[in-house]
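Trying the structure run again after the queue cleared.
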Amino acid sequence: MITEILTEDQVIKDESFPIEAKVYDGGTQQVPSAATITVKNPTGKAQVKDQSVAIASGGTMSYTLPAAKTNALWENAIIEITYTISSVDHKMVRFFDVVLNKLSPCVVDDDLKEYYPELADEIWSAESNYDDQIQEAFRILKRELKNKGNRPHMLIDGSQLRIPLIHKTFEIIFRGFFKEAGDKWHELYKEHEQKFKDEFADLVIKYDSDEDGNIDKDEKAVLASQINLER
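Done. C-alpha cells:
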C-alpha cells in the first residue's frame, strides 16, 4: 500500500516554500526515478507548471516555490506532484495554505520521556528519536481542526494544542509497539487514543478570527469543536 506524505502544508506570506514529499510502500520509503510539480492557487490557476523536482538518494522529493508566488493569503491552494516508480506514474495531490502565522508543534522528544522514561530504550532500531511520530501527530491534529471547519494557522499559539498533541503522539507510538490486543502497549495505545478524543472535544483555544496576526480582546477563547468559519 502506497502512503504519500507532504511534510509541510503551510508557508508564511511572502516567503519561499520548501516543498518536500515522501512516498512509502509497506513502510519503506520509495525512490522515484523522476518527478514534476504543478502548484495552483485555490481557484485552480497554475502558479508553476510541470517543474522538475529534485530527488534525494533516499527518495525524498523537493522543490522550492519562490516567495513571489506566495504574495497572497491562500486557503487550500493545490500541490500536484507526478512521480514515477518502477515505470509506473503516480499523482500526489495535497492542499496547502499561505498564512500570516505558521503553526508549529510545541512537543519534543524529551517531553515524551517525561511521561514514559523507558521510551528511550524502546525506540525502533532505525530511529534515533520520535520526531517523525510527533510530526505525524501534528499533521493529524491540524487535519482534525480543518475537518471541523477550523483553520489551524489562525490559532497562532501552538501551545494551545500541546496536551492533545502529546496524546496523539503516544497513540501513534504505542500503536506501532503493540504485538497483540491486550498487551501493555495495546492498552497504552487505547488509553491515549481515548485521551486524545476527550482532550480534543474539550479543547478551548484563542482564535485570530480577523487574521490580523494578533489575538484581540474581542476574540474570545472558544471550544475548537464550536468554531466553524465559512469563506
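DSSP finds five helices and twelve strands in the chain. Worth checking whether this holds up in the mutant runs.
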